[in-house]
Structure formats: structure tokens, C-alpha cells
Amino acid sequence: MDFIKQTESLWNIYFHGSEDDNYTNMELFAPDCVVIGTGKHEIFRNLEDFSRSFANEMADRKDIAFQFKDLWCEQRQISPEVYLVYGGIFIWWESNDKDVFINMDSRFTILYKRFDDDWKITHIHHSVPNIEQKDGEYYPKTLSMQVAEERKKVDALMRLAQKDSLTDLINYRTFEELYHTKSREGAWIFVIDLDNFKNINDTYGHMEGNQVLIRVAGVLRSTVRYYDIVCRMGGDEFLLLCNDLHNETEAKELLQRILKNIADAGKNRKDWVGVSIGGTLIHPLDTLETAFKRADDSMYSVKTRGKNGFQLQMDR
């Protein structure tokens, strides 16, 4: 069997064929095939999962008409029953209004396996090299430099901004400015309020209360990542702005670490507190005010239930 010709036909049908052509093409796939695509979600462990996602993709394409060039591939026999085909393809398209632009210099591997008298696809891996990686780099150093540059910008802004004089955290005004510079991708806002903090001031004095605030600020800063934002809003209330928490589970894991680290920092101390935390996923159209209100409401729900815990809100 000419697997190179079969592979070229596969890509032609995928990019240029009709919807009926593509669904007919599914007969080439084994039921337990594994497909790994370029999207973050595109890891499919069988034909059923891939077919379901593919139907959604076809519906989402609408008027997009992929173009490609520089298609090349080679085949290699792995065993009498298995052939590997690998190659590259450049995919592009631009909408008339210039709102959508596709530009992918990609590569792929396909495994064909014999089943009786038929050959079926058991694996496809389609990938796109990191756009920040230059020729000759073994890993994308350019991206590392961009991250370092972004960190410099944030550091410069924080130096210029007025900080909270007690904890050395940024104040709420600076937090507002940074909120508009951060990506909404996997972004969460958390409101943290100390439990029974008034008792610390009344029992041990305000100077000791200040030390508690400083120690809590240090725990928060050491628990989150360097690019997360920690703010003292005022009094005994703090704010966190965290990116790249991809789901509710990751957000819960972060808050569990905060609660544990706060508790560990107060071991063998009489002048210590618990914290109540409310959090919410930030949606693309959220203002700081709308996101903050959801997190704040969740925090007060924790207070009502008995304090020293957390509650998350996913919906608007």
C-alpha cells in the first residue's frame, strides 16, 4: 500500500473535502486509535471521542477554507504489520475582514496498522512548534526572555506604585492598575479576611496585631507564584489575583495550601488567626468590581458557616 499517497489524500480531504467526505474518511481509523492535535484539549483516546470533537470542529469552521502548501511526507516500515508516515505541512487562511488569520507551520506522524486485509490508522500526532522558538534553539529561550521582560515591567510598576507601608504589599489602587494588565486566561480573584482579628488587637495590642498582619502577608507571598498579585486591601483583608489556574481543582489546591501554611505559621502561638477565603473565576467581560463582589460574597458565606475555610464561585 502506498501510505504516502494515502496520507496526502487524508490531508486533502480533511482540509478541502466536504463534511460527507470527512465522515466517510473516518472508516480509515481503528476504533481504539489515539489522536493528538494542536489544540490544548486535543488528546483523544479512541475514535468515538475524536469523532465527537471533529463534529464540533466542522460546525465551528463555518466559512473557513484552509489552504496548505509544502506538504511532504515519508514512510518507514516498523514491522510487517505497522508503517510510520511522518512529514510536515504549512496551513494558512485569512478572512475577508482580516479578523481571522491562520498560520501554522506544522508537522505530523501517522501510524498505519494491518488488520486482516485492511490497513487502519491507529495513531495521529499533529503538532505546531513553539512560535517563540528560533531555529537552532533546543528550547524556546526567546519565550524565557519575554517572561523575564514582563517580570521587569511588573517589578518596575510595583516600585513606582505606592505600597502598603506595613506589609510592603501593593495597595488596592495598584491592584486595580495591574488587574487590567493581566491575562484573563485561567485567572481567579480571591478575597482573604482574617478571622477574629479584633480579638488579637483587644488582647495583645495593636502592635502585636500589626505583626500578625505582616506574618500573614509573608505567608501569602511565599505560597503563590512570583507572578501572582498579592494585595493588602486594607485592615485585615487581602486580595490575590492568580493566573494559569486551569480549573476549579487547581484553585482549590492553592487555597488548601494557603490554609495549611497559615495554620503552620501559627503553631505554638497564642496570637494567631485563621482565615476565610472567597474566590471566583474571572470571566472575559468581568470588571474588577463584578469579580470582586462574587469573591467577597463567597468569603462572607464562609464567615457565616463558621470561618477558617474557603468557597469558590464559578458562574457569573
Overall description:
With 316 residues, the chain is α+β, with helices and mostly antiparallel strands. 40% of the residues lie in helices and 29% in strands. It is built from 9 helices and 11 strands. The strands form 2 sheets. A 6-stranded mixed beta sheet has the order 2-1-6-5-4-3. Strand 8 (229-234) and strand 9 form a beta hairpin. Helix 6 packs across helix 7. It starts with a helix and ends with a strand.
Computed structural class: alpha+beta
Radius of gyration: 27 Å
Proportion of β residues? 25-35%
- Average pLDDT works out at 88
What's a concise summary of this model?
This protein is an alpha+beta fold and about 325 residues long.
Give the topology.
Layout (H helix, E strand, L loop, with lengths): L2 H14 L2 H7 L3 E8 L6 E2 L2 H15 L5 E13 L2 E13 L6 E15 L2 E10 L13 H20 L11 H8 L8 E7 L2 H8 L1 H18 L5 E6 L2 E6 L5 H18 L9 E7 L6 H18 L3 E5 L3
Parallel strand pairs: 1-6, 10-11
Antiparallel strand pairs: 1-2, 3-4, 4-5, 5-6, 7-9, 7-10, 8-9
Helix pairs in contact: 6-7, 7-8
